[in-house]
Design a protein that fits this description.
Layout (H helix, E strand, L loop, with lengths): L2 H11 L3 H8 L15 H5 L4 H24 L4 H16 L12 H11 L1 H18 L2 H20 L3 H16 L1 H9 L13
Helix pairs in contact: 1-4, 1-5, 2-4, 4-5, 4-6, 5-6, 5-9, 6-7, 6-9, 7-8, 8-9
């Protein structure tokens, strides 16, 4: 019984909203320009704010919905946390994109808000602050990923959510290795900067 919701969450998390929204709006495939990442930040580089907002909403919603359904079904806390992690991993390693997905920032946010809205607000506040100050989405994401386990610990203590949050944070930092290298070289694109061909 615990395996079915985890697999279902992974499949939901695999839905590539960046690609689907861009295709529906007649925009270039986000994998063909900028960072090549199928996520909201890279879609924004296409010049369409609406497409970026729709992508962001879709990616966050799939993480939130997966956890909410598991919670509504009365599943144990351990399974609910695993469902959230599975939805996140579905985005990062999308079945529909041959296991090459996005970095998972929006989906992780959706998962955190569904698990505990207080944690979601705390981590989002960190992301927004760093993004506004630096204009670097990648730096904001890495900072929020590193802070997330501490926020969960402060609010919930040692719960299954802490393990899921730490795992998502580790994957997020790993997925941003190239961005961190560009930051050190002064080559990282800022939020809203126009895309260059990949």
């Amino acid at each position: 019984m615990w395996l079915l919701p985890i697999v279902a969450a992974y499949l939901v998390g695999s839905i590539p909203f960046a690609v689907l929204v861009s295709r529906a709006m007649g925009l270039p495939d986000p994998r063909s320009f900028g960072s090549g990442n199928p996520g909201a930040t890279n879609v924004l580089r296409s010049g369409s704010k609406l497409a970026a907002v729709l992508t962001l909403g879709g990616d966050a919603l799939k993480g939130w919905v997966a956890v909410w359904v598991a919670w509504a079904a009365g599943l144990p806390a351990e399974t609910i946390a695993a469902v959230g992690l599975a939805a996140f991993l579905g985005h990062v390693f999308s079945l529909w994109l041959r296991f090459k997905g996005g970095k998972g920032v929006a989906t992780a946010a959706g998962v955190l808000f569904a698990l505990d809205w207080r944690v979601g607000v705390g981590v989002l506040a960190v992301w927004v602050t760093v993004a506004l100050v630096t204009r670097y989405s990648s730096l904001a994401a890495v900072t929020a990923a590193l802070v997330a386990p501490a926020v969960i610990w402060a609010i919930q203590g040692a719960t299954p959510m802490l393990a899921a949050g730490a795992a998502m944070g580790a994957v997020l930092v790993w997925r941003h290795q190239a961005n961190l290298a560009k930051l050190l070289r002064g080559e990282e694109s800022r939020i809203g900067q126009k895309a260059r061909p990949k």
